[in-house]
Amino acid sequence: ISLGVLELNERRELTAYIEKPTLHYEVSMGIYAVERRALSHIPTATRFDFPDLIHALLAADEKVLGYPFTGSWLDIGRPEDHAQAVEEFDRLRDRFLPGESGAAR
């Protein structure tokens, strides 16, 4: 992040100062697959998003696995994100579709 981060103790005394730290996260992205029994954790007639399902599964002590991905990925949840993904795909088309003939485009 572009800011210095302070760590304070319970008396508000500075215990550490970290200048512009780099934070690493495993993020939720990609393809999700669930076993049919996971559907029993989804209530009817109410809004229930994917994060709600994950929280319900964890609360029920169900095993939830994640797999690291090191390839290309862009969020396409907003129109500007989708436009960026289309632009990148066009620019890197040969990388994503190796061997595709130019005439098929």
What does this structure look like?
With 105 residues, the protein is of the alpha+beta class. The longest helix is centred in the C-terminal third of the chain and has 13 residues, at 79-91. The model has no long low-confidence stretch (mean pLDDT 91). The chain contains three helices and two strands. Strands 1-2 form a two-stranded antiparallel ribbon. The protein has helices at 50-59, 79-91, 93-96; strands at 5-8, 14-18.
What is the number of E strands?
2
**How many distinct helices?**
3
Radius of gyration: 21 Å
Uncertain ranges: none
Beta-strand residue percentage: 5-15%
Mean pLDDT: 91
Query: Helix- and strand-based class?
Result: alpha+beta
Global geometry: flat
How much helix, percentage-wise, in residues? 25-40%
| Secondary-structure element series | EEHHH
Head-to-tail CA distance between termini: 40 Å
Largest beta sheet, briefly? 2 strands, antiparallel
The strand order across the widest sheet is: 1-2
What would the keywords be for this entry?
105 residues, alpha+beta, two-stranded antiparallel ribbon, 26% helix, flat
